[in-house]
Amino acid sequence: MLYREAGQFKATYVEDQQIFPIRQDRIAFAILLAVAFLVVPLVGNQYWLSAILTPFLVASLATIGLNILTGYAGQLSLGTAAFMAVGAFMAYNFELRMPWMPILGSFALAGLCAAAVGMVFGLPSLRIKGFYLAVATLACQFFVLWALQRIGWFTNYSTSGVITAQKIVILGYAVVTPASKYLLTLSVVAVMALLAKNLMRSQTGRAFMAVRDMDVAAEVIGIRMMRTKLLAFAISSFYCGVAGALYAFCYLGTVEPEAFNLDISFRILFMVIVGGVGSILGSFLGAGFITLLPIFLNLVSGWIRHTFGVELDHAMLSNLELIIFGGLIIFFLIVEPLGLARLWQIGKEKLRLWPFPH
Amino acid sequence: MLKRTRQMALGALAGAAMLALASGPSFAQNEQFIPANGYWVGPYAPGGSGFFGGVIDYFQMLNTRDGGINGVKLTWEKCETEYNNARGVECYERSKKKGPTGATVVHPLSTGITYSLIEKGTADKIPLISMGYGRTDAADGRVFPYVFPLITTYWSQNTAKIKFIGTKEGGMDKLKGKKIVNIYHDSAYGKETIPVLDVQAKKYGFTVTHIAVPHPGNEQQAQWLQVRQIKPDWVILRGWGVMNPTALKAAARAGFPRNKIVGVWWSGAEEDVIPAGDAAKGYIAAGFNLPGTNFPVMQEILKQVYKNGKGEMEDDSRIGSIYHTRGVVAGIITAEAIRTAQGKYGKKPITGEQMRWGIENLNINDARLKQLGAVGLMQALKVSCMDHEGGGAVKFLQWNGKKWNVITDWIASDQSIVRPMIEQSAAAYAKEKGITPRDCSKES
């Protein structure tokens, strides 16, 4: 019913190749964007905007970044948090040392710095693959944090190694309220997600996927290995760098290098795996699952306590939340190893056939 | 089958989501809400659960015995931060609008979270108390009106520590040529004392080597090998959580005498030494609160709270432990600040802004300490607009394998070193952020 495609004919290749070939999808997506841009900032309270939606969007962007590298180009990386750290600290430094620089310019430059670091640490990918590459990128994770903690220049010689993000001003408008920070994050994420989606449908994206599926075959058909792999590292790190800058400027405000520890790298890798390897939509679903579920479990346990008056021990409850969270990850991976994006795809296929499945 | 389970799981999740969003706890009007954003899981759980156990036990005692503060009942809600900055910010955002007047005051109990909340708390007019941790230069209340690193900052503590080492060596002039190693947790918290140590090294003529231990600190072979090469006279341990017992065990293996290791107060609780066993014997740590259940206030808590089975500490042996009494001290300070603010704004729930005034005008003198039954548990405290620290003195405790023994009286910090550094650092922050410092003579 919902997905009746009768009467939707495609007369040109352009129509056939658009991101959302079904009209209902286009409408739904337009509504989603309208809600996210117009309704949410109006109705969302401060807690939702600044503590839930903004970090969710930032995590989505970082997940898209890692998905480009791991999901599309097949290069396993554990350095995501390091690239985010480079983005955050370089954005701070660009703003500090070049105060005339518009903030989005700083974000872009910070992303480029992260891309450069990513390319350097992507070099081993030319020789090694799989888990061995993951270990090589682990070096990046430790090296970057070490450098940020040891070299005073990065933190403007702050005694405790902490940076405080500058005020964001765009065209004379100060971005201070949670709603405006949310909108800024949303705009950046929306534009970059669209770019990523299109990039992955282009020749570059197909080259990435060819490398992922079988690198020898890809080389035989004329895909240049070095260029493709390093490009994947650069683009991925660029996305992570911008995500890191947003994390510092729009969410935490003050960050220490330790905020970008290995734990974050693993979490983002889990977001990719749970959401769906090689899917932009999956990046959002995975980020939502990993960032929002613990908070949600926490709220539910509080609600159960208040409604039923059960006085549960907080420490036990906190541990229980972690257990349930881990259990749900395993549950979803068993039910659908290809991630939440695949679940969504299956659901959509079913809806398109409904009510006459064959 | 699989399909049905999947649908059921999704349905259950969606249903629970609706319920969680639709309802929140309700609060009566005559209540003062204080969030308990701490950590009860993870590697730092002993610190978090002990500290907030003490805070809540004290509030519970006031509620049971006096019906709150001047008739205003104290309420709280726990939120798990996992000692993680992002979760800490989330908890803060969640708790700040609760209760009739919102969050009264926040104890972040993490230097990292304190840093993340400084600007948010100032904007939302919610004071932060970072008692014995956090950003040291926030002691300059002109630049940081909403941040209170009460009792002692890391820098003050550090000067007291050098004084203590000086007395042990037989005078400050004897420090010349001595070697001190500073082993620190590689985080904002750990690094905080590096500059003040460097300044003192220059002043007293000792050499100081800073050695970082990466988080979480359960691997320290290389660091203690370096200590063995340097052969220092003293080691300052600036650890946290699992790093502390590991350090003591590594020191024992490296043959470094434990009675030459001086720890900060976040390295000086029972939980830090018991896991190290015999290796911890003789180890010295600083403290701004003392352990034990003999203080009248602790007896009151035992009588009013634990007798009724409402106590927070499940393990009886942890009642009166260092972290627990530190929480009680935090509870006393919070309650006294509320009382002070009520004196000016009336005996009703106060707002964060009024609480800020209450903390800034807090004066717990010896007479008041006696009334509270906390003589010896903590030092007298007088906060002002200029000085958001208030106390500054430290006692030193030595672990004898069974319990902490107090080995010194209150050792005052050296404000002639600390204060100029605080003012310089705060001024630099003010300049970077474009803050005009308040004029303290105009504050009432």
SSE layout:
The complex is a heterodimer of chains A (358) and B (444).
Chain A: H1 13-16, H2 23-43, H3 46-72, H4 80-97, H5 103-122, H6 130-150, E1 163-164, E2 168-170, E3 173-175, H7 178-200, H8 203-213, H9 215-220, H10 225-252, E4 254-255, H11 262-275, H12 280-308, H13 314-335, H14 340-353
Helix pairs in contact in A: 2-7, 3-7, 3-8, 3-10, 3-11, 3-12, 4-5, 4-6, 4-10, 5-10, 7-10, 8-10, 11-12, 12-13
Chain B: H1 2-22, E1 31-38, H2 45-66, E2 73-80, H3 85-95, H4 111-124, E3 128-129, E4 147-148, H5 154-169, E5 179-185, H6 188-191, H7 194-204, E6 207-213, H8 221-230, E7 234-238, H9 243-254, E8 261-263, H10 270-273, E9 284-287, H11 296-306, H12 322-345, H13 352-360, E10 363-364, H14 366-372, E11 381-382, E12 395-399, E13 404-406, H15 415-433
Parallel strand pairs in B: 1-2, 3-4, 5-6, 5-7, 7-8, 8-9
Antiparallel strand pairs in B: 9-12, 10-11, 12-13
Helix pairs in contact in B: 2-11, 2-12, 3-4, 8-9, 12-13
Unreliable segments of 5+ consecutive residues of chain B:
15-26
Mean of residue pLDDT values of chain A: 89
Distinct helical segment count of chain A: 14
What structural class is derived from the secondary structure elements of chain B? Answer: alpha/beta
Shape of chain A: globular
Biggest interface, chains and residues, is: A-B, 43 and 54 residues
